[in-house]
Amino acid sequence: MIQRVIWIVLDSVGMGALPDAGEFGDAGANTIAHTVEVCGGLKLPNLQKLGYGNIDGMSGIAPVSQPVGAYGRLQECSRGKDTTIGHWEMIGIYTKEPFPTYPDGFPESLMEEFLKQTGCKGYLGNCVASGTQIIQELGEEHIRTGYPIIYTSADSVFQVAACESVISPERLYEICRTARKLLQGEHNVARVIARPFVKEENTFVRTANRRDFSRKPSEENLLSYLKNAGISVAAVGKIEDIFDGVGITMAVHTKDNMDGMDQTINYMKQISTGLIFTNLVEFDSKWGHRRDAHGYGAGLEAFDVRLQELLAELRTDDLLVITADHGCDPTYTGTDHTREYVPVLWYSKNPDFEAGKNLHTGTSFADIGQTIADIFQVQKLAIGESRKEVLFHEYV
């Protein structure tokens, strides 16, 4: 009987354009395949052992003859391609209408209220921009004026950047919390993001003190059902922020992917039952958006090395799930996410686990959440198909 689920989201590691990707400007995107192509191949023996290369439609990763995991891919049914919508769908929340975006910047009336409520004397930016570029362009003026840098992207985000020596991270978080309360109704963006940075010699560099302040999800979701049933939900990385703490019983924030793996393994040594839910954000934030395919490939190889360590920690009553929340093809035009299928790998040392099972293509990311709900015998989710009986031939 499964007592514990370890769920790892490789943020943005998609595997090919969805049928409707053209509607989102993402026709032909394929995060994994194009990364492999640029890198001239990748060494991912542990992912391959689980069945990564055997997934329908996977390109660039060689299949193995006898995968020890079950494998498939999932199609997003919600209307979006960002972190919030992807993660929300995984736990059973369907998003019919996209969250608001601001291709021309935020309305003047909204920004006037932002200044009034935060106490800031002014702001810089208020435009669509790359986060790494805008701090280079406006960093010096920010230091001179003390005004925070406001920007957005193709995603539903209100981002506030500040140098830590000018506006402390604590003050920046306070500004973002105020903005989060302000951004409601028609302006209820998916996330308000604090983006601290520092000056190093003649350049500006973002720090690991990022924080996300998400719109609050419906309580009708897997995490809330688990928590209400007395089942622990441990969040690693930005998981707590993505769900605004809803359904989370304990959490730890991380500075990078390797720290995320460290904290996941630490939780595995501390928590004997429940869900450990991890997001590894660097694929998206450090390599995907910056269109660094070589960095992306190196990050995948580094994860694969740590995966071997995590596999060794698994017990016979554990279930491991590895997936993604959207794409962010590092070879694609622009700097935004790409609407793609996501891989899903399942693995357990339980003797009843169906190794080598091809789950083909699921119609919702919520197949994962529905399966976990079924395993823990909590309330059924509104969307998604449970794969429990497919994964375990004599589940008891």
What's the shape? Answer: globular
Question: Which class best fits the helix and strand makeup?
Answer: alpha/beta
Biggest sheet details: 8 strands, mixed
CA radius of gyration is 21 Å
* N- to C-terminal distance: 6 Å
Quick one: CATH superfamily of the largest domain?
Answer: Alkaline Phosphatase, subunit A
Could you tell me the number of beta strands?
14
Quaternary state, please? Answer: single chain
The spatial strand order of the largest sheet comes to 10-9-11-1-12-13-2-14
- Provide the CATH top-level class of the largest domain: Alpha Beta
Uncertain spans, ≥5 residues at pLDDT below 50? none
Topology pattern, helix = H, strand = E: EHHEHHEHEEHEEEHEHEHEHHEEEHH
Helical stretch count? 13
In short:
The chain is of the alpha/beta class and 396 residues long. The chain has helices at residues 31-39, 45-50, 83-90, 108-118, 131-145, 169-182, 222-228, 239-242, 257-270, 282-288, 293-313, 366-376, 388-391, and strands spanning 4-10, 70-74, 124-128, 149-152, 157-163, 191-200, 203-206, 211-214, 233-236, 250-252, 274-280, 318-323, 342-347, 358-362.
